[in-house]
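During the first year of the project, the team set up a workflow for recording each protein of interest as an amino acid sequence followed immediately by a discrete structure-token representation. This format lets reviewers and collaborators read both layers of information side by side without switching files. As required by the reporting guidelines, we include two representative entries from the current panel. The first entry is reproduced here exactly as it appears in our internal archive.
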Amino acid sequence: MSTASSQLPEGRYGRSADERADRRLKAVGAVLGAALLVLIGWFAHHYVAGNRISVEIYTFDTSASSVKVHLRGDKDAGVEGYCTVRSQAEDGAEVGRADFRFGADTTGIDKVVTLRTASRGTTAELVGCHAD
């Protein structure tokens, strides 16, 4: 008899042990890859959206040596931080800049702050807010 007749027909009796191992390895790899993507997404969200302070200038009033700025907004509970406010003169030169701190005890911000200026300021600009 020839050796060709002693071999089983290919694919007739199910998968070989190597094919089953390859399929199992691919499934485990897919599950671990998906878990890694979820973990990276969670860390990215926490980094970008965590410790948020969102404040805007509600109103401002200028005088010869200061600008009173009414800040309103909100922040995450337990977050301390600060907002930087600046004022410019009519010609565009910066005449004052200061940081105003917010404690961790509140979530709502509604505060009037006074920015001292070198000369009469005509604007009040919120440069940015940052969490500590």
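The second entry, processed by the same pipeline in the following quarter, appears below.
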Amino acid sequence: MTPERPPAKTATACAYDAIKQRILEGTYQADEYVRELSIAKELEVSRTPVREALRELISEGWLEAIPHQGARVSSWSEQDAREIFEIRLHLEPLAIYKAASLIEASLLQSLQQLATRMEKLAEQPDDSTRAEIALLNHEFHRELITASKSQRLVMVLDNIVRPSTVHRNFQHYRQTDLQRSMRHHREMLDAIEAGNASWAESVMRAHLLAGRDLHTHALTPKAD
């Protein structure tokens, strides 16, 4: 029996993926406008699917709508980063603490596969692999939060973690920073597999503290 082919991507999905990839790779910089007509010409599609993709990216925080001017890549200040990480430091360790006793075997296996994919990409990082790590990292944290089975916690953190991922694209991570982040992911999973909620909570807190310091340092204005 011939296996079914996966459904072809819609024009909107293609535009969405192309724009998001460029944001993660740094092709589109903070505060840079993403022009609907230019994207449509480049992808050889009509402006309607590009417009729909831009709306979706705005709703997710990747872009911001500027009245009478269009959509531009969202910017993030050092203060924004500190506030986001402060909230994450309170809530994400709680989420993983709950997940340690509630997670299903299938979800744990999925998280282990995500960790392995990120580890392989981190061995030889470049702009493309760093962008992919950023996407997988968001998925990893989102699935961990989902494993807490706390609907309100999931809703709050989904809106908090997403902008953190949008701007934390790993471009400023050194090889040693990436490797430490990968070790944190693996240790979280070891703690969950052992059923040790306090251990998992502790590693998540260390992971977020390291990420906060790296990110806010990168955003700190340099002296002339």
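For the second entry, the following points were noted during internal review. The radius of gyration is 19 Å. The CA atoms of residues 171 and 217 lie 13 Å apart. Both points are flagged for discussion at the upcoming steering committee meeting.
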